[in-house]
Specification:
By secondary structure, this protein is an alpha+beta fold. The protein contains 11 helices and 18 strands.
Length: 325
């Protein structure tokens, strides 16, 4: 490897990966780490091993952006099987109940209406949610069932795209807030219909504005040389493209570099695509205004369009959350 290739350890940015089925999100990070020969790699949201689709993987300094990207809305396509319930709410689990169903597409569409908007979900036992400091999936491996608290999530879209009456399966499209379990959504929908259900396939279509069209297939990335794989890294600024932005120069730039609080008079540019939060409709305010009031991250760039920091609105102006220079 030449000296230019060794510079890969200094890379920072975002890679939009198309995760294959059969591996964990941690496996994806390990494989991307080997591609770019760097240790500082992370991801902005777990996908189940059997699931496929969009994963945001951060390199270098961009790993510090991942916590800001996790709350972005997600969209999925999935196939649910009615009449069969499993321990994991997907096809990997053991069957717990079989109730022959005779549902129509009208039945499913009517029941789906109740699952749009803000709903409450109980996290599945086979999940990374921690109770008492331990991930639920570890207790599940021991055969234990832990009491879990229901959490609020928001379903922006829940559409039945196709229904096979013979197989009793439905292909659905879901756009939802971060933290939503699609297999739980399918299971709860089946329970509401009186027959139970589980997922037989799941694909994440997008995270915020990052969609399939920007994905690089993991296996293809691994086959590229380092020079070609670098072309798939989005800049730090691009990684925050869904968020509001402030541009600074002169003394203001110096203040940001040193992490000082900015006054409240800076103009915030709002891109067209913004993170969607359950609080977005509070009081009838647009999502961006509700988000800014709640401390939505704001990218701070200089006149050269270099991302300097991430700030949040505070009572006195804008306060530094992370500085990158």
């Amino acid at each position: 490897m030449n000296s230019g290739e060794k510079a890969s350890t200094e890379l920072s940015g975002l890679v939009v990966i198309d995760k294959p089925s059969g591996i964990t999100s941690h496996d994806v990070v390990d494989r991307v780490r080997r591609v770019y020969e760097m240790s500082k790699v992370g991801h902005a949201g777990t996908l189940d091993p059997t699931a496929t689709g969009v994963m945001l993987v951060g390199l270098g300094r961009a790993t510090r952006l991942l916590a800001f990207l996790q709350p972005l809305s997600k969209s999925y396509r999935a196939v649910a099987k009615f009449g069969v319930s499993t321990t994991t709410q997907d096809a990997e689990g053991e069957i717990t109940a079989t109730t022959p169903s005779r549902l129509s597409v009208q039945d499913v569409e009517k029941a789906a209406v109740a699952f749009r908007g803000e709903i409450r979900q109980v996290p599945p036992m086979v999940s990374a949610v921690k109770v008492g400091g331990e991930p639920l999936y570890k207790a599940a491996r021991r055969g234990e069932v832990v009491e879990r608290q229901a959490r609020s999530v928001r379903i922006y879209e829940f559409d039945i795209e196709d229904f096979d009456a013979d197989a009793q399966t439905a292909k659905v499209f879901v756009r939802c807030s971060s933290g939503t379990y699609i297999r739980t959504l399918a299971s709860d929908l089946g329970d509401a219909l009186g027959y139970g259900a589980h997922l037989i396939s799941l694909r994440r279509m997008s995270v915020g504005s990052f969609g399939e069209d920007e994905c690089v297939v993991l296996e293809e990335l691994e086959k590229m040389g380092l020079k070609a794989s670098v072309q798939h890294i989005l800049s730090m600024k691009e990684a925050l493209r869904d968020f509001p932005r402030i541009t600074v120069d002169g003394e203001s730039r110096d203040a940001v570099v040193h992490g000082r609080t900015l006054g409240p008079d800076f103009v915030v540019d709002r891109p067209g695509e913004l993170p969607l939060h359950p609080t977005g409709a509070a009081g009838g305010r647009p999502p961006h205004e509700a988000g800014l009031a709640a401390g939505l991250p704001i990218g701070v760039v200089d006149s050269d369009e270099t991302l300097l920091a991430v700030y949040r609105r505070s009572a006195k102006g804008f306060k530094a959350a992370a500085v990158f220079v």
